[in-house]
Amino acid sequence: MDALSISNMEKELEMKHILETRQIDTDVLIIGGGTAGCYAALTLSRKSSLSVLIAEKADIRRSGCLAAGVNALNAYITEGRTPQDYADYAAKDAAGIVRQDLLLTAAELFNEVTADLEQLGLVILKDENGKYVSRGNRNIKINGENIKPILADAVLQSERVAVMNRVIITDLLVKINKI
Q1: pLDDT in tens, 56-74
Q2: Residue among 81, 69, 62 at smallest CA distance from 144
Q3: How many CA atoms lie within 13 A of 95 on its CB side?
Q4: 54, 155 Cβ separation under 8 angstroms
């Protein structure tokens, strides 16, 4: 063996002492615990018997683009509008580089997801008649600084979802078509 090979072996042995390696069994791995990752895990836990693992580089309570909160849900079908209106708007906004069928499928579920978030504890502003206060054609006003903690709590209460915070996934080891 040459000196370079010995040096590489020494570095490899040193890394084995620094890095912890373990095998985790799960049916679904979600990389990223932002709003989409948390809601996907929550949906899977409710609608299947699959075990789910969220691997998040930060902490699911404050990760992702909604971590600091927002003042509106920008994907809601307001009164007098249709899911097709939203799909048309989003396709135009994206200069046509979208699958409009997927936009329409998502838009058909926006209000259902919104109702679910409200049931989980998200404060959605309402007028004197109890209707959501809209802000334009596709938005409703929310008190969203707690949207991530609300979702995180729901995820953490789910029996079939495990969370690993502060884990950075840089590569996937695939063996016999399994990660």
Answers
A1: 999 999 998 887 778 888 8
A2: 69
A3: 0
A4: yes
DSSP string, the chain: --HHHHHHHHHHHHHHHHS-------SEEEE--SHHHHHHHHHHHHH----EEEEESS-TTS-STTTT--SEESS---TT--HHHHHHHHHHHTTT-S-HHHHHHHHTTHHHHHHHHHHHT-EE-B-TTSPBPB-SSS-EEEEGGGHHHHHHHHHHH-TTEEEEES--------BTTB-
Cα distances (angstroms) measured from residue 51 to each of 7, 36, 134: 42, 17, 37
For the entire predicted model, the pTM comes to: 0.80
Residues recorded for the chain: 179
Which residues lie closer than 8 Å to 160 by C-beta, 6 or more apart? 44, 45, 49, 50, 51, 52
Closest CA to 143 of 110, 128, 121: 121
**By C-alpha distance, which of 139, 108, 107, 104 is closest to 125?**
139
